[in-house]
Amino acid sequence: MPDISRDEVRHLADLARIELDDAELDHLAPQLSVILESVASISAVAADEIPPTSHPLPVVNVFREDVVRPSLTAEQALSGAPAVEGQRFLVPRILGDEQ
Amino acid sequence: MSHTAPELLTFEDALERFDPAMGLEVHVELNTNTKMFCGCPANFGGEPNTQTCPTCLGLPGSMPVVNGKAVESAIRIGLALNCSIAEWCRFARKNYFYPDMPKNFQTSQYDEPIAFDGWTDVEIIGDEGPETFRVEIERAHMEEDTGKSLHVGGATGRIHGADYSLVDYNRAGIPLIEIVTRPIMGAREKAPAVARAYVAHLRELLLGLGVSDVRMEQGSLRCDVNLSLAPAGDGSLGTRTETKNVNSLRSVERAARYEIGRQAAILAGGGSILQETRHWHEDTGVTTSGREKSDAEDYRYFPEPDLVPVAPAREWVESLRIALPEPPRERRARLQADWGFTDLEMRDTVGAGALPLVEETITAGAAPQAARKWWLSELARRANELGTELSALPITPADVARIQALIDEGAINDKLARQVFEGVLAGEGTPDEVVASRGLAVVSDEGALGEAVDRAIAANPDVAEKIRDGKVAAAGALIGAVMKEMRGQADAGRVRELILERLG
Q1: How many structural domains comprise chain B?
Q2: What pTM was computed for the model?
Q3: SS3 for A20-84, per residue?
Protein backbone atom coordinates (compact mmCIF):
# COMPACT_ATOMS: atom_id res chain seq x y z
CA MET A 1 0.00 0.00 0.00
CA PRO A 2 1.38 3.43 -0.85
CA ASP A 3 2.29 5.50 2.08
CA ILE A 4 3.38 9.09 2.09
CA SER A 5 5.67 10.07 4.90
CA ARG A 6 5.59 13.21 6.92
CA ASP A 7 8.99 14.16 5.45
CA GLU A 8 7.72 13.77 1.92
CA VAL A 9 4.81 16.08 2.65
CA ARG A 10 7.20 18.58 4.14
CA HIS A 11 9.38 18.42 0.99
CA LEU A 12 6.35 18.90 -1.26
CA ALA A 13 5.28 21.86 0.84
CA ASP A 14 8.76 23.36 0.46
CA LEU A 15 8.63 22.93 -3.32
CA ALA A 16 5.21 24.58 -3.38
CA ARG A 17 6.38 27.37 -1.07
CA ILE A 18 3.66 26.49 1.41
CA GLU A 19 4.46 26.83 5.06
CA LEU A 20 3.12 23.95 7.12
CA ASP A 21 3.62 23.66 10.87
CA ASP A 22 4.03 20.35 12.68
CA ALA A 23 0.36 20.09 13.57
CA GLU A 24 -0.62 20.62 9.94
CA LEU A 25 1.89 18.03 8.75
CA ASP A 26 0.49 15.52 11.27
CA HIS A 27 -2.98 16.28 10.00
CA LEU A 28 -2.25 16.25 6.25
CA ALA A 29 0.18 13.38 5.80
CA PRO A 30 -2.34 10.62 6.64
CA GLN A 31 -4.98 12.31 4.46
CA LEU A 32 -2.69 12.29 1.44
CA SER A 33 -1.97 8.64 2.10
CA VAL A 34 -5.67 7.88 1.98
CA ILE A 35 -5.99 9.66 -1.37
CA LEU A 36 -3.03 7.74 -2.81
CA GLU A 37 -4.48 4.47 -1.53
CA SER A 38 -7.80 5.20 -3.21
CA VAL A 39 -6.14 5.89 -6.55
CA ALA A 40 -3.84 2.91 -6.17
CA SER A 41 -6.84 0.58 -5.98
CA ILE A 42 -6.91 0.86 -9.78
CA SER A 43 -3.74 -1.20 -9.92
CA ALA A 44 -5.62 -4.01 -8.24
CA VAL A 45 -7.84 -4.42 -11.31
CA ALA A 46 -5.24 -3.59 -13.98
CA ALA A 47 -3.73 -6.84 -15.18
CA ASP A 48 -0.08 -7.08 -16.22
CA GLU A 49 -0.87 -7.14 -19.92
CA ILE A 50 -2.65 -3.77 -19.79
CA PRO A 51 -0.23 -0.92 -20.45
CA PRO A 52 -0.63 2.34 -18.54
CA THR A 53 -2.81 4.76 -20.45
CA SER A 54 -2.31 8.51 -20.49
CA HIS A 55 -4.90 9.25 -23.14
CA PRO A 56 -8.16 7.33 -23.41
CA LEU A 57 -8.78 8.13 -27.08
CA PRO A 58 -6.79 6.58 -29.94
CA VAL A 59 -6.14 10.00 -31.46
CA VAL A 60 -2.72 11.41 -32.42
CA ASN A 61 -1.36 14.44 -34.30
CA VAL A 62 -3.91 17.12 -33.54
CA PHE A 63 -2.12 20.16 -34.94
CA ARG A 64 -3.01 23.80 -35.34
CA GLU A 65 -2.12 25.98 -38.34
CA ASP A 66 0.58 28.52 -37.48
CA VAL A 67 -1.79 31.46 -37.90
CA VAL A 68 -1.99 34.33 -35.42
CA ARG A 69 -5.27 34.81 -33.59
CA PRO A 70 -6.17 37.90 -31.61
CA SER A 71 -4.66 38.05 -28.13
CA LEU A 72 -6.23 39.58 -25.08
CA THR A 73 -5.53 43.24 -24.50
CA ALA A 74 -3.12 43.96 -21.66
CA GLU A 75 -6.08 45.29 -19.64
CA GLN A 76 -7.99 42.04 -20.12
CA ALA A 77 -4.91 39.92 -19.38
CA LEU A 78 -4.22 41.82 -16.18
CA SER A 79 -7.85 42.14 -15.07
CA GLY A 80 -7.63 39.16 -12.73
CA ALA A 81 -4.24 40.07 -11.27
CA PRO A 82 -4.19 40.92 -7.57
CA ALA A 83 -1.56 43.59 -8.24
CA VAL A 84 -0.20 45.28 -11.35
CA GLU A 85 2.69 47.63 -12.04
CA GLY A 86 4.06 48.87 -15.34
CA GLN A 87 1.56 46.71 -17.28
CA ARG A 88 3.04 43.63 -15.63
CA PHE A 89 1.83 41.15 -13.06
CA LEU A 90 3.21 42.12 -9.67
CA VAL A 91 4.20 39.06 -7.66
CA PRO A 92 5.65 38.86 -4.16
CA ARG A 93 9.34 38.60 -3.62
CA ILE A 94 10.46 35.19 -4.76
CA LEU A 95 12.36 33.19 -2.23
CA GLY A 96 14.63 30.43 -3.35
CA ASP A 97 15.78 30.95 -6.88
CA GLU A 98 14.88 31.35 -10.48
CA GLN A 99 13.60 28.50 -12.54
CA MET B 1 25.74 38.74 -3.42
CA SER B 2 29.48 38.50 -3.10
CA HIS B 3 31.45 38.62 -6.31
CA THR B 4 34.89 38.15 -4.85
CA ALA B 5 36.73 35.80 -7.10
CA PRO B 6 37.49 32.43 -5.50
CA GLU B 7 40.84 30.83 -5.91
CA LEU B 8 41.43 29.46 -9.38
CA LEU B 9 43.90 26.96 -10.69
CA THR B 10 45.53 28.11 -13.91
CA PHE B 11 44.07 26.45 -16.96
CA GLU B 12 47.31 24.61 -17.65
CA ASP B 13 47.64 23.31 -14.07
CA ALA B 14 43.98 22.30 -14.04
CA LEU B 15 44.41 20.22 -17.19
CA GLU B 16 47.51 18.56 -15.93
CA ARG B 17 45.53 17.05 -13.10
CA PHE B 18 41.98 16.77 -14.44
CA ASP B 19 39.99 15.85 -17.54
CA PRO B 20 36.99 18.08 -18.23
CA ALA B 21 33.67 16.62 -19.42
CA MET B 22 31.04 18.95 -20.82
CA GLY B 23 27.38 18.68 -21.61
CA LEU B 24 25.84 21.51 -23.55
CA GLU B 25 22.15 22.33 -23.44
CA VAL B 26 21.03 24.77 -26.06
CA HIS B 27 17.57 26.31 -26.08
CA VAL B 28 16.38 27.62 -29.42
CA GLU B 29 13.32 29.80 -29.79
CA LEU B 30 11.59 28.91 -33.04
CA ASN B 31 10.61 31.69 -35.41
CA THR B 32 7.05 30.48 -35.89
CA ASN B 33 4.29 33.06 -36.24
CA THR B 34 2.49 31.80 -33.16
CA LYS B 35 3.21 30.23 -29.80
CA MET B 36 3.59 26.50 -29.18
CA PHE B 37 0.06 25.82 -27.91
CA CYS B 38 -2.03 28.88 -28.81
CA GLY B 39 -2.45 31.44 -31.57
CA CYS B 40 -0.75 34.34 -29.78
CA PRO B 41 1.99 36.00 -31.81
CA ALA B 42 5.49 34.71 -31.01
CA ASN B 43 7.47 37.76 -32.07
CA PHE B 44 9.91 39.63 -29.87
CA GLY B 45 9.58 43.13 -28.48
CA GLY B 46 5.84 43.70 -27.95
CA GLU B 47 4.48 45.89 -25.16
CA PRO B 48 4.24 43.87 -21.90
CA ASN B 49 1.36 41.39 -21.68
CA THR B 50 -0.11 42.21 -25.09
CA GLN B 51 0.59 38.72 -26.52
CA THR B 52 -1.35 36.48 -24.16
CA CYS B 53 -4.61 34.56 -24.16
CA PRO B 54 -6.44 32.26 -21.75
CA THR B 55 -4.30 29.29 -22.88
CA CYS B 56 -0.84 30.77 -22.34
CA LEU B 57 -2.05 32.47 -19.16
CA GLY B 58 -3.24 29.09 -17.90
CA LEU B 59 -6.77 30.29 -17.21
CA PRO B 60 -9.32 27.64 -16.20
CA GLY B 61 -11.07 25.86 -19.06
CA SER B 62 -8.52 26.79 -21.73
CA MET B 63 -7.11 24.00 -23.89
CA PRO B 64 -3.76 23.91 -25.68
CA VAL B 65 -3.40 22.78 -29.32
CA VAL B 66 0.04 21.99 -30.78
CA ASN B 67 1.50 24.27 -33.45
CA GLY B 68 2.09 21.95 -36.44
CA LYS B 69 4.80 24.19 -37.85
CA ALA B 70 6.76 23.93 -34.58
CA VAL B 71 6.62 20.13 -34.76
CA GLU B 72 7.87 20.30 -38.34
CA SER B 73 10.77 22.57 -37.25
CA ALA B 74 11.61 20.20 -34.37
CA ILE B 75 11.76 17.25 -36.75
CA ARG B 76 13.93 19.17 -39.23
CA ILE B 77 16.33 20.14 -36.43
CA GLY B 78 16.47 16.52 -35.31
CA LEU B 79 17.18 15.30 -38.85
CA ALA B 80 19.88 17.93 -39.40
CA LEU B 81 21.54 16.61 -36.23
CA ASN B 82 21.39 13.02 -37.53
CA CYS B 83 18.85 12.04 -34.87
CA SER B 84 16.24 9.33 -34.96
CA ILE B 85 12.73 10.77 -34.99
CA ALA B 86 10.29 9.28 -32.51
CA GLU B 87 7.48 7.26 -34.04
CA TRP B 88 5.29 8.23 -31.12
CA CYS B 89 5.92 10.66 -28.30
CA ARG B 90 4.08 12.74 -25.75
CA PHE B 91 4.28 16.06 -24.04
CA ALA B 92 4.69 16.14 -20.28
CA ARG B 93 4.02 18.60 -17.52
CA LYS B 94 7.08 19.82 -15.65
CA ASN B 95 5.62 21.08 -12.40
CA TYR B 96 7.24 23.83 -10.44
CA PHE B 97 6.24 26.83 -8.39
CA TYR B 98 7.76 29.92 -9.85
CA PRO B 99 5.69 32.72 -11.36
CA ASP B 100 7.44 32.78 -14.75
CA MET B 101 4.84 30.20 -15.85
CA PRO B 102 1.31 31.18 -14.93
CA LYS B 103 0.17 27.55 -15.21
CA ASN B 104 2.55 26.38 -12.46
CA PHE B 105 3.98 23.94 -14.96
CA GLN B 106 5.89 24.08 -18.19
CA THR B 107 4.68 21.89 -21.02
CA SER B 108 7.75 19.99 -22.13
CA GLN B 109 8.79 16.50 -23.13
CA TYR B 110 10.27 14.16 -20.58
CA ASP B 111 11.33 10.62 -21.44
CA GLU B 112 9.91 10.69 -24.97
CA PRO B 113 11.75 13.40 -26.92
CA ILE B 114 10.77 13.90 -30.55
CA ALA B 115 14.42 13.47 -31.65
CA PHE B 116 17.21 11.40 -30.09
CA ASP B 117 20.56 9.64 -30.64
CA GLY B 118 22.18 11.99 -33.12
CA TRP B 119 25.57 13.52 -33.78
CA THR B 120 27.16 16.46 -35.46
CA ASP B 121 30.74 17.23 -36.46
CA VAL B 122 32.21 20.55 -35.41
CA GLU B 123 35.48 22.01 -36.56
CA ILE B 124 38.00 23.73 -34.34
CA ILE B 125 41.33 25.25 -35.29
CA GLY B 126 44.09 23.39 -33.48
CA ASP B 127 47.82 23.97 -33.60
CA GLU B 128 48.06 21.78 -36.70
CA GLY B 129 45.16 23.33 -38.57
CA PRO B 130 41.47 22.40 -38.60
CA GLU B 131 40.38 19.46 -36.47
CA THR B 132 37.01 17.77 -36.52
CA PHE B 133 35.32 16.92 -33.27
CA ARG B 134 32.23 14.72 -33.17
CA VAL B 135 29.60 15.83 -30.67
CA GLU B 136 26.96 13.26 -29.86
CA ILE B 137 23.42 14.50 -29.44
CA GLU B 138 21.40 12.82 -26.73
CA ARG B 139 18.07 14.41 -27.58
CA ALA B 140 16.19 17.38 -28.95
CA HIS B 141 12.79 17.96 -27.45
CA MET B 142 9.89 20.39 -27.75
CA GLU B 143 8.82 22.72 -24.98
CA GLU B 144 7.67 26.27 -24.39
CA ASP B 145 9.50 29.35 -23.21
CA THR B 146 8.69 31.03 -19.89
CA GLY B 147 7.62 34.58 -19.07
CA LYS B 148 10.09 37.32 -18.28
CA SER B 149 10.55 38.53 -14.70
CA LEU B 150 11.79 41.94 -13.69
CA HIS B 151 13.03 42.11 -10.12
CA VAL B 152 12.35 45.36 -8.34
CA GLY B 153 14.18 46.69 -5.32
CA GLY B 154 17.47 45.51 -3.86
CA ALA B 155 20.28 45.41 -6.39
CA THR B 156 18.83 46.38 -9.75
CA GLY B 157 17.52 43.51 -11.81
CA ARG B 158 18.85 40.83 -9.49
CA ILE B 159 16.65 38.41 -7.70
CA HIS B 160 18.52 38.58 -4.41
CA GLY B 161 17.21 41.30 -2.17
CA ALA B 162 14.36 42.12 -4.57
CA ASP B 163 11.23 43.47 -2.90
CA TYR B 164 8.91 42.12 -5.56
CA SER B 165 8.91 40.99 -9.18
CA LEU B 166 7.01 42.09 -12.27
CA VAL B 167 6.14 39.48 -14.87
CA ASP B 168 5.48 39.84 -18.58
CA TYR B 169 3.96 36.74 -20.18
CA ASN B 170 4.50 37.67 -23.85
CA ARG B 171 7.32 35.13 -24.04
CA ALA B 172 5.48 32.42 -22.11
CA GLY B 173 4.53 29.72 -24.60
CA ILE B 174 6.92 30.60 -27.45
CA PRO B 175 8.06 27.32 -29.03
CA LEU B 176 11.41 26.19 -27.73
CA ILE B 177 13.60 23.29 -28.80
CA GLU B 178 16.09 22.07 -26.23
CA ILE B 179 19.09 20.30 -27.73
CA VAL B 180 21.14 18.25 -25.29
CA THR B 181 24.54 16.71 -26.00
CA ARG B 182 25.98 13.57 -24.47
CA PRO B 183 28.99 14.26 -22.25
CA ILE B 184 31.77 15.62 -24.44
CA MET B 185 34.95 13.96 -23.21
CA GLY B 186 38.52 13.84 -24.37
CA ALA B 187 38.64 17.41 -25.63
CA ARG B 188 41.16 18.28 -22.87
CA GLU B 189 42.58 21.77 -23.33
CA LYS B 190 40.39 22.23 -26.38
CA ALA B 191 37.17 21.79 -24.36
CA PRO B 192 36.34 25.53 -24.18
CA ALA B 193 37.04 25.93 -27.91
CA VAL B 194 34.91 22.86 -28.70
CA ALA B 195 32.04 24.31 -26.65
CA ARG B 196 32.22 27.56 -28.56
CA ALA B 197 32.60 25.82 -31.92
CA TYR B 198 29.60 23.61 -31.18
CA VAL B 199 27.32 26.55 -30.40
CA ALA B 200 28.63 28.45 -33.45
CA HIS B 201 28.06 25.36 -35.59
CA LEU B 202 24.56 24.89 -34.20
CA ARG B 203 23.77 28.53 -34.89
CA GLU B 204 24.92 28.16 -38.48
CA LEU B 205 22.94 24.96 -38.89
CA LEU B 206 19.76 26.45 -37.44
CA LEU B 207 20.17 29.58 -39.55
CA GLY B 208 20.49 27.37 -42.62
CA LEU B 209 17.30 25.54 -41.64
CA GLY B 210 15.54 28.89 -41.25
CA VAL B 211 13.84 27.76 -38.05
CA SER B 212 15.07 30.47 -35.67
CA ASP B 213 16.56 33.95 -35.59
CA VAL B 214 19.36 32.42 -33.43
CA ARG B 215 20.22 35.77 -31.89
CA MET B 216 22.11 35.06 -28.69
CA GLU B 217 21.99 38.68 -27.55
CA GLN B 218 18.19 38.64 -27.76
CA GLY B 219 17.95 35.25 -26.12
CA SER B 220 16.54 33.33 -29.07
CA LEU B 221 19.51 30.97 -28.64
CA ARG B 222 20.68 30.28 -25.10
CA CYS B 223 23.32 27.91 -23.86
CA ASP B 224 23.74 26.18 -20.50
CA VAL B 225 27.19 24.74 -19.93
CA ASN B 226 27.38 21.62 -17.78
CA LEU B 227 30.91 20.91 -16.73
CA SER B 228 32.63 18.42 -14.48
CA LEU B 229 36.18 17.30 -13.85
CA ALA B 230 37.59 13.85 -13.24
CA PRO B 231 41.18 12.91 -12.36
CA ALA B 232 43.27 12.92 -15.54
CA GLY B 233 43.14 9.59 -17.36
CA ASP B 234 40.45 8.26 -15.05
CA GLY B 235 37.69 8.15 -17.66
CA SER B 236 34.98 8.73 -15.06
CA LEU B 237 32.50 11.60 -14.71
CA GLY B 238 32.72 13.96 -11.73
CA THR B 239 30.02 16.04 -10.12
CA ARG B 240 28.83 18.69 -12.54
CA THR B 241 27.70 22.26 -12.32
CA GLU B 242 25.25 23.82 -14.75
CA THR B 243 26.18 27.36 -15.76
CA LYS B 244 23.29 29.42 -17.08
CA ASN B 245 22.98 32.87 -18.63
CA VAL B 246 25.75 32.29 -21.17
CA ASN B 247 24.65 34.61 -23.92
CA SER B 248 27.43 34.93 -26.46
CA LEU B 249 29.83 32.60 -28.24
CA ARG B 250 32.71 34.24 -26.46
CA SER B 251 31.04 33.66 -23.10
CA VAL B 252 30.51 29.96 -23.84
CA GLU B 253 34.27 29.58 -24.16
CA ARG B 254 35.07 31.83 -21.20
CA ALA B 255 32.52 30.19 -18.90
CA ALA B 256 33.84 26.69 -19.67
CA ARG B 257 37.39 27.85 -19.05
CA TYR B 258 36.42 29.56 -15.81
CA GLU B 259 34.60 26.54 -14.43
CA ILE B 260 37.59 24.29 -15.23
CA GLY B 261 39.84 26.58 -13.18
CA ARG B 262 37.36 26.99 -10.33
CA GLN B 263 36.48 23.32 -9.94
CA ALA B 264 40.12 22.27 -10.27
CA ALA B 265 41.10 24.55 -7.39
CA ILE B 266 38.39 23.06 -5.16
CA LEU B 267 39.23 19.46 -6.07
CA ALA B 268 42.97 20.03 -5.82
CA GLY B 269 42.40 21.46 -2.33
CA GLY B 270 40.63 18.26 -1.30
CA GLY B 271 37.14 19.75 -1.55
CA SER B 272 34.16 18.45 -3.49
CA ILE B 273 31.96 20.05 -6.10
CA LEU B 274 28.40 20.90 -5.17
CA GLN B 275 25.91 19.93 -7.86
CA GLU B 276 24.26 23.25 -8.49
CA THR B 277 23.16 25.84 -10.99
CA ARG B 278 25.65 28.65 -11.44
CA HIS B 279 25.15 32.03 -13.07
CA TRP B 280 27.62 33.47 -15.55
CA HIS B 281 28.47 37.15 -15.20
CA GLU B 282 29.51 38.59 -18.53
CA ASP B 283 30.97 41.75 -16.93
CA THR B 284 33.23 40.13 -14.33
CA GLY B 285 33.86 36.86 -16.18
CA VAL B 286 33.00 34.65 -13.21
CA THR B 287 30.23 32.23 -12.27
CA THR B 288 28.40 32.47 -8.97
CA SER B 289 26.33 29.93 -7.12
CA GLY B 290 22.63 29.79 -7.98
CA ARG B 291 20.41 27.21 -6.43
CA GLU B 292 21.00 23.59 -5.71
CA LYS B 293 19.69 21.62 -8.61
CA SER B 294 16.27 20.07 -8.11
CA ASP B 295 15.99 16.37 -8.66
CA ALA B 296 13.95 15.38 -11.68
CA GLU B 297 11.40 13.81 -9.34
CA ASP B 298 10.80 17.21 -7.75
CA TYR B 299 9.27 18.31 -11.06
CA ARG B 300 6.77 15.44 -10.84
CA TYR B 301 6.67 15.01 -14.62
CA PHE B 302 3.59 13.31 -15.95
CA PRO B 303 2.08 12.98 -19.46
CA GLU B 304 0.15 16.10 -20.47
CA PRO B 305 -3.49 14.97 -20.50
CA ASP B 306 -4.68 17.95 -22.57
CA LEU B 307 -2.52 17.13 -25.60
CA VAL B 308 -2.71 14.00 -27.71
CA PRO B 309 0.52 12.18 -28.63
CA VAL B 310 2.60 13.20 -31.63
CA ALA B 311 3.21 10.36 -34.10
CA PRO B 312 4.97 11.77 -37.17
CA ALA B 313 4.21 9.66 -40.24
CA ARG B 314 7.39 8.16 -41.73
CA GLU B 315 6.48 9.60 -45.15
CA TRP B 316 6.36 13.07 -43.62
CA VAL B 317 9.70 12.61 -41.88
CA GLU B 318 11.31 11.34 -45.11
CA SER B 319 9.93 14.24 -47.12
CA LEU B 320 11.40 16.65 -44.58
CA ARG B 321 14.73 14.82 -44.70
CA ILE B 322 14.93 15.05 -48.49
CA ALA B 323 14.20 18.79 -48.36
CA LEU B 324 16.91 19.61 -45.80
CA PRO B 325 19.29 22.35 -46.90
CA GLU B 326 22.95 21.73 -47.62
CA PRO B 327 24.83 21.04 -44.33
CA PRO B 328 27.16 23.82 -43.12
CA ARG B 329 30.42 22.03 -44.00
CA GLU B 330 29.42 21.30 -47.56
CA ARG B 331 28.02 24.80 -47.85
CA ARG B 332 31.27 26.31 -46.63
CA ALA B 333 33.27 24.29 -49.15
CA ARG B 334 31.01 25.47 -51.96
CA LEU B 335 31.11 29.12 -50.90
CA GLN B 336 34.90 29.05 -50.54
CA ALA B 337 35.21 27.78 -54.11
CA ASP B 338 32.71 30.37 -55.40
CA TRP B 339 34.44 33.24 -53.65
CA GLY B 340 38.00 32.14 -54.29
CA PHE B 341 38.98 32.46 -50.63
CA THR B 342 42.13 30.79 -49.36
CA ASP B 343 41.75 28.24 -46.53
CA LEU B 344 43.02 30.84 -44.07
CA GLU B 345 40.62 33.52 -45.31
CA MET B 346 37.72 31.11 -45.08
CA ARG B 347 38.73 29.92 -41.62
CA ASP B 348 39.04 33.48 -40.33
CA THR B 349 35.65 34.35 -41.82
CA VAL B 350 33.98 31.37 -40.19
CA GLY B 351 35.87 31.84 -36.91
CA ALA B 352 34.71 35.43 -36.64
CA GLY B 353 31.10 34.32 -37.09
CA ALA B 354 31.06 36.42 -40.27
CA LEU B 355 30.10 33.79 -42.85
CA PRO B 356 26.41 34.67 -43.15
CA LEU B 357 27.24 38.39 -43.04
CA VAL B 358 29.88 38.10 -45.76
CA GLU B 359 27.51 35.98 -47.83
CA GLU B 360 24.70 38.51 -47.55
CA THR B 361 27.10 41.34 -48.38
CA ILE B 362 28.18 39.51 -51.52
CA THR B 363 24.56 38.79 -52.41
CA ALA B 364 23.94 42.53 -52.01
CA GLY B 365 26.51 43.17 -54.74
CA ALA B 366 29.94 43.50 -53.13
CA ALA B 367 32.98 41.65 -54.44
CA PRO B 368 33.89 38.68 -52.15
CA GLN B 369 37.28 40.05 -51.07
CA ALA B 370 35.82 43.48 -50.33
CA ALA B 371 33.00 41.95 -48.27
CA ARG B 372 35.46 39.86 -46.33
CA LYS B 373 37.86 42.75 -45.80
CA TRP B 374 35.30 45.09 -44.22
CA TRP B 375 33.72 42.52 -41.90
CA LEU B 376 37.03 41.08 -40.73
CA SER B 377 38.98 44.30 -40.30
CA GLU B 378 37.08 47.51 -39.67
CA LEU B 379 33.90 45.90 -38.32
CA ALA B 380 35.62 43.12 -36.38
CA ARG B 381 37.71 45.79 -34.67
CA ARG B 382 34.59 47.77 -33.75
CA ALA B 383 32.78 44.66 -32.49
CA ASN B 384 35.81 43.82 -30.38
CA GLU B 385 35.93 47.34 -28.92
CA LEU B 386 32.26 47.14 -28.04
CA GLY B 387 32.58 43.59 -26.70
CA THR B 388 29.79 42.41 -28.98
CA GLU B 389 29.21 39.98 -31.83
CA LEU B 390 29.57 41.10 -35.43
CA SER B 391 25.93 40.27 -36.07
CA ALA B 392 24.90 42.60 -33.23
CA LEU B 393 26.55 45.67 -34.79
CA PRO B 394 23.98 48.20 -35.97
CA ILE B 395 24.96 47.84 -39.61
CA THR B 396 23.50 45.55 -42.27
CA PRO B 397 25.25 43.60 -45.02
CA ALA B 398 23.36 45.83 -47.48
CA ASP B 399 24.99 48.90 -45.85
CA VAL B 400 28.43 47.33 -46.21
CA ALA B 401 27.75 46.49 -49.87
CA ARG B 402 26.58 50.06 -50.47
CA ILE B 403 29.74 51.54 -48.91
CA GLN B 404 31.86 49.33 -51.17
CA ALA B 405 29.77 50.42 -54.15
CA LEU B 406 30.47 54.06 -53.24
CA ILE B 407 34.19 53.24 -53.26
CA ASP B 408 33.91 51.42 -56.59
CA GLU B 409 32.07 54.41 -58.08
CA GLY B 410 34.90 56.68 -56.91
CA ALA B 411 32.53 58.69 -54.71
CA ILE B 412 34.63 57.93 -51.60
CA ASN B 413 37.98 56.32 -50.93
CA ASP B 414 38.96 53.67 -48.37
CA LYS B 415 39.87 56.26 -45.78
CA LEU B 416 36.55 58.09 -46.10
CA ALA B 417 34.78 54.73 -46.06
CA ARG B 418 36.01 54.26 -42.50
CA GLN B 419 34.25 57.45 -41.53
CA VAL B 420 31.10 56.26 -43.28
CA PHE B 421 31.25 53.05 -41.23
CA GLU B 422 31.65 55.12 -38.10
CA GLY B 423 28.61 57.23 -39.01
CA VAL B 424 26.40 54.25 -39.84
CA LEU B 425 27.42 52.50 -36.59
CA ALA B 426 26.68 55.71 -34.67
CA GLY B 427 23.14 55.62 -36.01
CA GLU B 428 23.52 58.60 -38.35
CA GLY B 429 21.60 56.86 -41.13
CA THR B 430 22.32 54.96 -44.33
CA PRO B 431 25.76 55.16 -45.98
CA ASP B 432 24.46 57.71 -48.50
CA GLU B 433 22.97 59.82 -45.71
CA VAL B 434 26.25 59.73 -43.77
CA VAL B 435 28.25 60.73 -46.88
CA ALA B 436 25.87 63.64 -47.43
CA SER B 437 25.57 64.82 -43.82
CA ARG B 438 29.28 64.53 -43.05
CA GLY B 439 30.29 65.94 -46.44
CA LEU B 440 32.53 62.97 -47.14
CA ALA B 441 32.45 62.69 -50.93
CA VAL B 442 35.89 62.87 -52.54
CA VAL B 443 36.68 66.16 -54.28
CA SER B 444 36.51 65.42 -57.96
CA ASP B 445 36.71 69.11 -58.82
CA GLU B 446 39.91 69.07 -60.91
CA GLY B 447 40.35 72.80 -60.48
CA ALA B 448 40.36 72.67 -56.67
CA LEU B 449 42.61 69.61 -56.74
CA GLY B 450 45.04 71.27 -59.17
CA GLU B 451 45.26 74.35 -56.99
CA ALA B 452 46.03 72.22 -53.95
CA VAL B 453 48.75 70.42 -55.90
CA ASP B 454 50.27 73.73 -56.99
CA ARG B 455 50.28 74.99 -53.42
CA ALA B 456 51.95 71.78 -52.19
CA ILE B 457 54.68 72.09 -54.84
CA ALA B 458 55.26 75.74 -53.96
CA ALA B 459 55.46 74.93 -50.26
CA ASN B 460 57.96 72.08 -50.76
CA PRO B 461 60.51 73.22 -53.35
CA ASP B 462 63.14 70.66 -52.19
CA VAL B 463 60.77 67.77 -52.74
CA ALA B 464 59.63 69.14 -56.07
CA GLU B 465 63.26 69.37 -57.19
CA LYS B 466 63.88 65.70 -56.32
CA ILE B 467 60.90 64.64 -58.36
CA ARG B 468 62.09 66.73 -61.30
CA ASP B 469 65.40 64.87 -60.97
CA GLY B 470 63.51 61.60 -61.42
CA LYS B 471 63.09 60.55 -57.79
CA VAL B 472 59.42 59.70 -58.26
CA ALA B 473 59.25 58.03 -54.85
CA ALA B 474 59.51 61.46 -53.26
CA ALA B 475 56.01 62.26 -54.62
CA GLY B 476 54.58 60.58 -51.49
CA ALA B 477 55.37 63.62 -49.38
CA LEU B 478 53.48 65.91 -51.76
CA ILE B 479 50.53 63.51 -52.02
CA GLY B 480 50.39 63.52 -48.21
CA ALA B 481 50.35 67.31 -48.13
CA VAL B 482 47.56 67.50 -50.71
CA MET B 483 45.49 64.81 -48.95
CA LYS B 484 45.88 66.68 -45.70
CA GLU B 485 44.73 69.93 -47.25
CA MET B 486 41.74 68.15 -48.83
CA ARG B 487 41.04 66.55 -45.43
CA GLY B 488 41.43 63.11 -46.97
CA GLN B 489 38.65 63.73 -49.43
CA ALA B 490 40.64 63.23 -52.60
CA ASP B 491 41.56 60.30 -54.79
CA ALA B 492 45.23 59.74 -53.95
CA GLY B 493 45.87 58.10 -57.33
CA ARG B 494 44.57 61.13 -59.18
CA VAL B 495 46.64 63.48 -56.97
CA ARG B 496 49.76 61.51 -57.87
CA GLU B 497 48.96 61.82 -61.56
CA LEU B 498 48.52 65.59 -61.25
CA ILE B 499 51.86 65.96 -59.42
CA LEU B 500 53.76 63.91 -61.98
CA GLU B 501 52.09 65.80 -64.87
CA ARG B 502 53.47 69.01 -63.43
CA LEU B 503 56.94 67.79 -62.45
CA GLY B 504 57.54 64.80 -64.72
Answers
A1: 3
A2: 0.76
A3: CCHHHHHHHHHHHHHHHHHHHHHHHHCCCCCCCCCCCCCCCCCEECCCCCCCCCHHHHHCCCCCE
